[in-house]
Write a structure and sequence with these properties.
Blueprint (H helix, E strand, L loop, with lengths): L3 H15 L2 H4 L25 H6 L6 H8 L17 E4 L2 E5 L15 E5 L2 E4 L5 H11 L4 H5 L1 E5 L5 H6 L10 E5 L26 H10 L7 H9 L26 E2 L3 E2 L30 E7 L9 E2 L10 E4 L19 E3 L8 E2 L3 E2 L12
The protein binds calcium ion (CA) (2 copies).
Length: about 375
């Protein structure tokens, strides 16, 4: 029996339970939109794995299998594409995490709290398709989207042929559709490919996939505190890594949605979908690219929205949870819908979820032996 209709039905129901549709429909100015709803852009749609586990027709063993073999592998592999796995040094220091002027209160953007972070290394770029391909080729790793056989894509980016096969969408965020065959190699459905975008961020990677990749690179995911500290780059209380101007020097420094979401994308920044991970100026003094915009980025923290105002050293988030924190917003973010391309902004997904606008970059306590440090 084909389990897909039942799976889809249950998945959509559960997705709906996780999304407040009233906020999704708000396309007015931010001041007119509900500010207390963390789901207000449809960007936290999550997969529900329990239905797969209950049905017994799916085994998620790829991460474990990969762990048994990773020591034999070589993260410094050669590729035809320019490597973008370099890391920059983020000196230790302190900062105010979060904001006392939250846009999305229920996201737990606030309150501001004093946080100290030890020095660490962070990938200068989002992980690209080319870099992820090295990992897959070396380990035969199978992502969770490939195992489940589907992932979330915005309908705008899906071909008419693929659209015909889609029977359901997420209520309140109807542009989000579960697409069969969508995965990191087929970001917009089975008839798409990454052939021309190998230098773009890898998408449709779950948190578990991201952890597996970073481990293979002898790296790890950044904590949310590390990510935000790196994003802020010593700019106190600013919205973006460089300050408060959306377009510094009248230029575009990030890849977001321009036009009227979700109906028109004018691509004023040059990109209707993703941009190369090397695109745009460095976003702050650490030399980081595309921290905000382009692809959302997983962090290691469990999701929580109640933060103590006590100062903390190297906080790692709640001990447990259902969702993992992602940061930075994406090419699908528009000020009127998902104004989350800010350092303090945050969102969440279950660790096995994947989507067309979700990727990651890795961190490390020490510079891996096979790497030279990147200039900031
Ligand atoms: Ca854009
Ligand atoms: Ca990003």
């Amino acid at each position: 029996m084909d389990p897909w209709p039942r799976i889809l039905q249950v998945m959509i129901c559960l997705v709906l339970a996780r999304c407040d549709v009233s906020a999704e429909k708000c396309s007015k100015g931010e001041s007119e939109c509900p500010n207390d709803d963390p789901k207000s852009c449809g960007c936290s749609i999550s997969r529900d794995t329990s239905i797969y586990k209950q049905s017994g027709d799916l085994k998620l063993e790829s991460v474990d299998r990969y762990r048994q073999t990773k020591d034999k592998l070589t993260p410094a592999s050669k590729t035809d594409f320019p490597r973008t796995h370099g890391m920059v040094n983020i000196p230790g220091g302190s900062f105010f995490m979060g904001t006392n002027e939250p846009i999305f209160v229920a996201d737990g953007e606030g309150p501001e709290r004093f946080v100290r972070v030890n020095a660490f290394y962070l990938d200068k770029y989002e992980v690209s398709n080319a870099e992820f391909e090295l990992f897959v080729n070396a380990t035969n790793y199978k992502t969770e989207a490939e195992t489940f056989g589907n992932s979330f894509v915005m309908d705008t980016y899906v071909s008419e042929d693929v659209k015909k096969k889609i029977k359901q969408a997420v209520q309140g965020a109807p542009w989000w559709v579960p697409v069969d065959g969508a995965d990191w190699k087929h970001p917009y459905g089975e008839d798409s490919s990454t052939k021309e975008i190998m230098d773009h961020p890898v998408l449709h990677t779950s948190w578990n996939d991201a952890v597996a990749y970073c481990e293979w690179m002898t790296k790890r995911l950044p904590t949310e505190a590390e990510w935000e500290y790196a994003c802020r780059g010593d700019k106190v209380g600013r919205l973006f890594p460089w300050g408060n101007k959306v377009n510094p020097k009248e230029e575009h420094w990030m890849n977001i949605w321009h036009g009227e979401f979700p109906n028109s994308n004018t691509a004023d920044d040059g990109y209707e979908t993703t941009a190369p991970v090397t695109a745009f100026p460095k976003q702050n003094k650490f030399g980081l690219k595309n921290m905000i915009g382009n692809a959302w980025e997983w962090t290691s923290d469990w999701w929580g929205t109640q933060h103590s105002t006590e100062s903390k050293d190297n906080p790692m988030g709640p001990d447990r949870g259902a969702d993992k924190v992602k940061k930075g917003g994406s090419f699908m973010c528009h000020e009127t819908y998902c104004y989350r391309y800010r350092c303090a902004a945050r969102s969440q997904n279950t660790p096995d979820s994947s989507a067309v606008n979700l990727g990651f970059r890795c961190a490390s306590n020490k510079l891996p032996k096979y790497l030279h440090m990147e200039d900031p």
